[in-house]
Amino acid sequence: MLCISSVSALETEGSQNALSPGESYLLSVWHHRLYLYSAAALLFGVWFLLKVALNKKSFSKDVGPLVSKAVKRSEGSDAVVHLSGVKIFYGSQTGTAKGFAKELSEEVKTLGIPAEVIDIKDYDPDDRLSDECTNMSVCVFLVATYTDGTPTVNAEWFCKWLEEASTDFRYGKTYLKGLRYAVFGLGNSVYVGHYNTVGKNVDKWLWMLSGMRIMTRGEGDCNVVKSRHGSIQADFLAWKVKFLTRLQALAKGEKKSCSRNSKNGSSCKNKKKEQEEDEAAPVPQDNSSEEDLMESSSDEEESGLQDEKTSGSVVDMEDLGNIMNSVKRAKSKEEGGDGLMVKLSKVNGLKKIEDEAERREMITPALRKALTKQGYKLIGSHSGVKLCRWTKSMLRGRGGCYKHTFYGIESHRCMETTPSLACANKCVFCWRHNTNPVGTEWRWKMDPAEKILEDALEKHQTMIRQFRGVPGVKPERYEEGLAVKHCALSLVGEPIMYPEINTFIRLLHTHHISSFLVTNAQFPEEIRSLVPVTQLYVSVDASTKDSLKRIDRPLFKDFWPRFLDSLRALGEKRQRTVYRLTLVKAWNVEEMQAYSELISLGQPDFIEVKGVTYCGESPASTLTMANVPWHQEVVTFVQELADMLPQYEIACEHEHSNCLLIAHTKFKVEGEWWTWIDYERFQELVQAQEESGGQQGFSALDYMAKTPSWALFGATEQGFDPVDTRFQRRNKTKDISGC
């Protein structure tokens, strides 16, 4: 074994000695190849890193300026696009808010800013409202307040969702953070306790969800007396001017220095000074010197704090001064009054509180335009006259109205007018679609009764003269029509609100014109103080408190006690009195027992029962043709009601007007009805009473006249005067004007 090992070693040594130097070097490299590989990898890595570093530096030099330019261009673009557009949402019942929305949209577009008008009922807030927080738009909400402070029909769902979201923890208090919005509310301050409720709530709920007001909420008032600028249109104009100015500032990227979270009093004061100077500037088409409807943006906290107070937020000490100032201003307004007023008095007289020249007119330019379009001839600042369709009909010998059938008036000699376009109700079946103003007391400029009557007669005669030479007009009736013999104070509104109504009635009687006055049973003291009229009506549109509120929509909070007291006041009258019942199917035709109790309360001489007249579709009413009863349905109602009244019977019928007359049996003399009126005798009795200083009175039985057979219930004529010729319209829109 040792021998073999020695031999191997000797062979190896021999082989090494046999290799050349070159081969030995290669063999050595091979044996140390691992070190060589490591060194090569290290060198390659160093080379690669140096290459990358050099390339990066070269890239920065070549591309850097281009990147910088692109960044600057991007930054410049962001600085310009601060406002992508304006979305204008409207909640409207009568179309006013919708009209304002369209008007505002056009104004915004003239500034080069995109604008979109959206019916709020077509907008899903759950899916889309949060998107408005990030799309750089401004949302404007023009919302009206409807009955009892509720939203309009098209805004019900949106308001319900917004209210629930504002208190739902699942949405969170910052759900609408980033939403920029403005609110303008439409309301009527006559509705105490509900004025602009919806606008206030929408503003509050958006704020509670962290929406950002771009300006203080605006409020438009339909009550021209308390409206800051004289009308709701003027209120909107003043707000619109402020809004457009603010919009331009936003488009330029300007931000308010005094936001709702600001606690820097000095900056707020500086902003306030600037805005007050701006407020001092005249507003186009508005010369009002009153405080501008739109408060300065520095008063944002004042509006917001009112909302915070209702939502349980904490008020900062710095804001306490603003709150106290606002309280003082509100208190001074309440003590000093913010409207001039004429109180109705018992003696017709009137209690003047301020200079007449300082009061506002009842008829605003917008209202004047609307009423003129409807055919009214307006008189002065609060009166009107219109030609009744029955006047036109009788001029042609085509029949008279139900008053001709029931009481013997000559329809072609009747003037339909009112000394007060204002009303204390907003009835669902109003023939005027609630375009007339509303109020609970007289607070407007007042025209003298003499001037109203003079102009009313003149305008009425002018309208009659337009029928001269018209085919079918009877010459003798045309001549008679120029001499007014009857006056129906039932055109529109509440005539008894006019403080000089007694003077006006006396003037009518002086001209030997009979007086038919209709009141809505909300002014009991004025009914008691009313001088004798030929016939006094009270509208009894419902027999229970709930249905009266639903149908008449009265402004008075104590409407039901006033209603009952008005019926009692009517019962105290000695002259002819009438209950006027308007039947609305599915609304008030089931209240038979309640009606009989009301009749017992006022003991009227007559009860007119008429089916409601459908005046066409109106956003102010939900009535349809389905609510109009057929004549036979009215007859059935009247028969059932008469059976419940022991001292009353059905006397007359006017089928053409869908109307029947129930009369007290004291007008049935020896089996014959005496429902007609001896108008000459009435004028003699009124004159005698005036000359005696009120000592010589008279009653309804002193000037009654016999009713012709054709006017009686059950007659084949059904109340149509056989002297005339009945005319049936075909394929023509029915004229529903008239008393």
From TrEMBL:
<feature type="domain" description="Radical SAM core">
    <location>
        <begin position="407"/>
        <end position="651"/>
    </location>
</feature>
<dbReference type="GO" id="GO:0046872">
    <property type="term" value="F:metal ion binding"/>
</dbReference>
<keyword id="KW-0547">Nucleotide-binding</keyword>
<dbReference type="InterPro" id="IPR013917">
    <property type="entry name" value="tRNA_wybutosine-synth"/>
</dbReference>
<dbReference type="InterPro" id="IPR029039">
    <property type="entry name" value="Flavoprotein-like_sf"/>
</dbReference>
<dbReference type="InterPro" id="IPR008254">
    <property type="entry name" value="Flavodoxin/NO_synth"/>
</dbReference>
<dbReference type="InterPro" id="IPR058240">
    <property type="entry name" value="rSAM_sf"/>
</dbReference>
<dbReference type="InterPro" id="IPR001094">
    <property type="entry name" value="Flavdoxin-like"/>
</dbReference>
<dbReference type="Pfam" id="PF04055">
    <property type="entry name" value="Radical_SAM"/>
</dbReference>
<dbReference type="GO" id="GO:0051539">
    <property type="term" value="F:4 iron, 4 sulfur cluster binding"/>
</dbReference>
<feature type="domain" description="Flavodoxin-like">
    <location>
        <begin position="86"/>
        <end position="244"/>
    </location>
</feature>
<keyword id="KW-0819">tRNA processing</keyword>
<keyword id="KW-0411">Iron-sulfur</keyword>
<dbReference type="Pfam" id="PF08608">
    <property type="entry name" value="Wyosine_form"/>
</dbReference>
<keyword id="KW-0456">Lyase</keyword>
<dbReference type="InterPro" id="IPR034556">
    <property type="entry name" value="tRNA_wybutosine-synthase"/>
</dbReference>
<dbReference type="GO" id="GO:0102521">
    <property type="term" value="F:tRNA-4-demethylwyosine synthase activity"/>
</dbReference>
<feature type="compositionally biased region" description="Low complexity">
    <location>
        <begin position="259"/>
        <end position="268"/>
    </location>
</feature>
<comment type="function">
    <text>Probable component of the wybutosine biosynthesis pathway. Wybutosine is a hyper modified guanosine with a tricyclic base found at the 3'-position adjacent to the anticodon of eukaryotic phenylalanine tRNA. Catalyzes the condensation of N-methylguanine with 2 carbon atoms from pyruvate to form the tricyclic 4-demethylwyosine, an intermediate in wybutosine biosynthesis.</text>
</comment>
<feature type="compositionally biased region" description="Acidic residues">
    <location>
        <begin position="288"/>
        <end position="305"/>
    </location>
</feature>
<comment type="similarity">
    <text>Belongs to the TYW1 family.</text>
</comment>
<protein>
    <recommendedName>
        <fullName>S-adenosyl-L-methionine-dependent tRNA 4-demethylwyosine synthase TYW1</fullName>
        <ecNumber>4.1.3.44</ecNumber>
    </recommendedName>
</protein>
<dbReference type="Pfam" id="PF00258">
    <property type="entry name" value="Flavodoxin_1"/>
</dbReference>
<dbReference type="InterPro" id="IPR013785">
    <property type="entry name" value="Aldolase_TIM"/>
</dbReference>
<keyword id="KW-0408">Iron</keyword>
<keyword id="KW-0949">S-adenosyl-L-methionine</keyword>
<comment type="pathway">
    <text>tRNA modification; wybutosine-tRNA(Phe) biosynthesis.</text>
</comment>
<keyword id="KW-0004">4Fe-4S</keyword>
<dbReference type="InterPro" id="IPR007197">
    <property type="entry name" value="rSAM"/>
</dbReference>
<dbReference type="GO" id="GO:0008033">
    <property type="term" value="P:tRNA processing"/>
</dbReference>
<feature type="region of interest" description="Disordered">
    <location>
        <begin position="255"/>
        <end position="317"/>
    </location>
</feature>
<keyword id="KW-0479">Metal-binding</keyword>
<dbReference type="GO" id="GO:0000166">
    <property type="term" value="F:nucleotide binding"/>
</dbReference>
